[in-house]
Amino acid sequence: MDSASIIWENQQTIMFEEGIVLRKPSWFKKLFFVYVYPIMNKAYRQGLDESLINELESSQQSYFRHLKFSQHLKLKKKQNLVDLILKYYLCMLFANELEYFLKGFLIQLVVLFSQLAMPLLTKYIIEYIYESDKDYHQALLLIFLVMLIRILNLLSMSHSRFMMKVYGYDIMSVISLEIMSKCLKISLLSNTERSIGEITNLIQVDVQRLIQAPNNVVNMIIIPIQLCITLTYIYKEIGSSVIVGIVIIFLSILQNNYVGKQIVKAQKLVLKSKDNRVKETTEVFQMIKFIKINALEQFFQEKIFKLRQIELKCIKDRLKYFSINVFMGWLSPQMILSFTFGLYVLLGNQLIPSKTFPIIGLLSILAASLQLLPISLNDLLETKVSLKRIENFLDSHELMNDLYCKNKAAAASSALEITQGNFFWRKECIEDQQILKNINIKVEKGKFVSIIGDVGSGKSSLIQSILGEMIYKINGEKPKVYRSSPIAYVGQKPWIQNATVQENILFGKAYDEQLYEQAIKYSCLSLDLEILIHGDQTMIGEKGINLSGGQKARISLARAIYSKAEIFLLDDPLSAVDAQVGNFILKECFINFLKGKTRILITHALNYCKYTDYIYLMQKGEIIEQGDYQKMQNNLIFQEIEKKFEFDIQQQENQNITQGKDVQLGDEKEIDQNQEQIKDMDKTKSDLMTIEERKKGEIDQEVYIKYLQYKKNLIFQTILFIVLIIWILSQIMANLWVTEWTSRYASLSDHYSEITYFWVFLFLGFIQSMFAYIRAAMIVSQSIKSSSQIHNDMINCLMFAPQCKFFERVPLGRIMNRLTKDINSLDVEIHINIAQFSTKISQILSNNLLSIYVSTYLLIFPLIIFFYICLKIQRLYMKASRELQRLELISRSPILSYFTQSLMGLTTIRAYSQSDFVIKEFAQKLDYNKQIVNYSIAASSWFLQVLGFASLIVNTFAIGYCILYTSNPSFAGLILTFAASLDRNVQQTVDSLSLLENNMISFERCLEYTKIESENLAEVKTVEQSWPNQGRIKFINYSVNYRSNLPLVLRNLSFSIDSQEKIGIVGRTGAGKSSITLSILRIVEALQGRIEIDDVDISKVQIQRLRSSITTILQDPVIFTGTIRQNLDPLETCSDEEIMKVIEECCLLQLINDRNGLNTSINEGGDNLSAGEKQLICIARAILKKSKIVLVDEATANIDIETEQKIQQAIQRLFKDHTVITIAHRINTILHCDKIFVMSKGELKESGSPSELLKDKSSLFYEVYQEAMNHK
């Protein structure tokens, strides 16, 4: 079954509101695309929605096509098929689509021969006009033949067009799945050659090139055949004079070859520069919260703008060749015609109408093909560049899974064994940077093992080596790893999907009620599901934006429990939950429920080690000691760590007090109170992620006006209009001149010499080509400026968009879809559409005016009827096309979001062996998009047919007039030539208008992001350069909510913080702790009341000035691509000496010394650093900022005991003259504070020194402290 049957054979279940049922179409409906009319009518009357898009048949779905493609690809690789096109394009062609492709190719041949037959019939009509004794039966036969050939051409053209486009989208979908499949076989941690931004560009830009590839391949085959037939006919008519035309064609081919090579070079630079911009833009918006709180918008905005300027320069260089191709595309046919006719008459021949106009008709068809030839060639060359990029990616080194072996002897007792374990992260550093050294471990089945060590000691890397994410030295001794399966993995940074809670837990597995309830119970999610309005059907935002850190960790744990794995790899999950929850999970889940399973736990909390069967102590990538808890207590290093830990062991073991009392343990009264509070909070989050808005109806005139305003220069637009007029006039003059030239041999005219006719005709052709070049160059120049301006406006608006109202509600994929796919449309496509539309509309106007001028004014009437039908049909088609295009663009956002989301969770996906599930999910999103596109293509083909049948009115009238009334054969030839091309010109005009409108929808979508409501950037009060120099903070009757119509998160809050005072804030989930810091930073704005810093109302201070004056240390470390120096001091305000001093204070000296100093490169997201190292860098960055006010969202949960103590001491010492507000995650981090604030339900319930509050046994703080003390 061919791809076209996606629509043809699968139309039985769509039910419209009016009761219209779209059933399986008959052959008649297939032939004339009648089956698509109900959808278009629905779109015209009421608009379309997603429910009307039915699923594809299983045999047509991308997943099954990809399976066939993958099998064939492997087969071809075995046969050493390495050629790029054969490997990635023809491979698909011959795998399972050859029959369909050949069918389309044969139909295209019918298109070709029916097109060429029309000029030949023109010859017989002109000869009939010459006859004195006319046979009207012959006239009727000629009219019948013309109509028959026109209908044949019309049907074949529409179906060829439909089949090639559908096939192109099939290829695009399959290659997209192949890229996703490859992503699931590589590690972005060890493969630093690839970034998320670059891979995203492959999906958003490179793969899109494949859509037009089948049509371009057919053009490259058909056009030479057409050329041969045309030249053969011309040779038959005018003999050796055609040689000069062949020479010009040969020179044109050489020119196209040269330009093509330049285009390939330019396109490589364009795509490389686009990769860099997309990579930087993706990273910026992933860490937008960090950028805002540090007032770094301008810094990162300039980085994006610089990369954008480089990209635009490359695009301009590429588009210069587009203008050259336009010039040569118009000049070549004119030169062929001029020199061929010139040589013909110079050899003493007569240029009679019966010879001239068939040749002109053939050459006009050939001219269109020759204009299309360089475009198709250039598209194929650009496709080749994209395919080469895809090929390079698909040839990337994959995970080194060959080190896994089946040890039958070990299988009976061991769950995991590693011998000779020497592992690396990066291939290029393989000689000088070994991460894991001489790892030899053996974990027996059912044992509970813990791994401990300092920050950067290699604990997480050991887990990653077990999962196969790391690499080994190829020419060295290969490690051997034995592991039983299946495996469950709970990462230090949980990977959460943008799906429901249940879907995150099931992760593609069948629903088992009993197992599901157990997973909920032992991950402590029961109360959360009761509190959430939609329970386990609550939709989780992107990256778990509407979940707390503890909830994300526990959902990740529930996923592991539900997987029924035999080995559990637990990378410090208990650091994300509080002491009470951690104690329950450790004892009830890890020890009891998972008893009999193999558990490997990474932890910094030594008190957990006594519950494990075996302990591994790591240092600098090596296991320096191992044994059970009793044995390890005799080890000096372990004893030293334990002593530091016992400094305040009860306090140290408390994890994330701020997560609150969120399990079914403890005081029921507290649970009830907290439940109501979290219910309110969930109401604010249930509608967190906004649905992407889809405009309906026509594009607002405001959008077109705005696009013209981006072009700005009125003088430039006036010149462009004059250029277009001159170009039109040159076309009209050239047509009249050739009519004059051929009329002289019918004794109707003899005004000029042959040389004069030749040179004037050649000159008019050159003027026409030159002004076509100028027109194209001007349109390209202005379009690039418009694209540059709107991109900059989007970035500017996005950078200063509010965090809570925008970035926490809009998925990153939706933002990036506009900054990649839509911007690419404005960069590359829209100017071509404008050029094509202006060309075609000009040709229609000039040709019709000229036809009326040389024939009769009666021609106006069929033209009026034709254009009236066109107008009515165009309104129907254009509205349906707009609706489908908007649906298509919206359907692309989930594709990109799911793709980028999957890239961030590759380790988790592979650990659970769910690669096939992810590919199927991705395929479903591709199929939904593809089905919309298929409807759009069918609608376009239907429209082409309707226009063609309507044009038969004009054709019949023109032919009848020529046969019955015209006495001038030259005029008859001109009229017939124009009439034959009328429907093609109108169809191409509406096509170009449709494409222009589609690209204007991209502009419309981009324009929406230039109207995003900005943060309040106004400056009401100018403060001194030294402000704040005291650090006093005062809340006065302050209330705030995150968005309008949502509950207050802070209620009438009033308190004062003195200069240099240290404040610790505690409270349960939703108490309002983080809201205090967000309010000070004006991430949220006051609903009532005010905040004063050093007696200045912060609402009147310019927001950038405020944030740049405050230091914030976040719980989740934020690292960006660059060097360590750039991460520590992005604005370059500190000397190397200052930086090195802080590095030493923050225990980073060893990291610096072991690598390339301050110039050590950091991968995307800091993937080449441990979690602890990333946190230390963030703390060092905060210290270097030297602000008088410091806000600390305690960030030492993933740091070992010794390093944490050093950091806490460094913070206390270095910030002793600063005002510090710390949100407490562990009791020990705030016991040194001057005051403790206890928050509950957005209100300050208690405040005082730690000793004062602890003396009062009825205080909330005492209760929290006792909870911590009681859970060891």
TrEMBL record:
UniProt entry tagged with the keyword Nucleotidyltransferase: no
GO terms under biological process: transmembrane transport
Membrane topology: Multi-pass membrane protein
Ranges that cross the membrane: 105-126, 138-155, 217-235, 241-259, 322-347, 714-737, 757-776, 850-869, 932-952
Pfam families per the UniProt record, alphabetical: ABC_membrane, ABC_tran
The keyword Transmembrane helix appears for this protein: yes
SUPFAM superfamilies xref list: ABC transporter transmembrane region, P-loop containing nucleoside triphosphate hydrolases
Record-annotated ABC transmembrane type-1 domain positions: 104-382, 719-982
Main location, first listed in the record: membrane
Gene Ontology cellular component list: plasma membrane
Sequence ranges assigned to domain ABC transporter in this UniProt record: 418-645, 1033-1266
Subcellular location: Membrane
Stated name of the protein: ABC transporter family protein
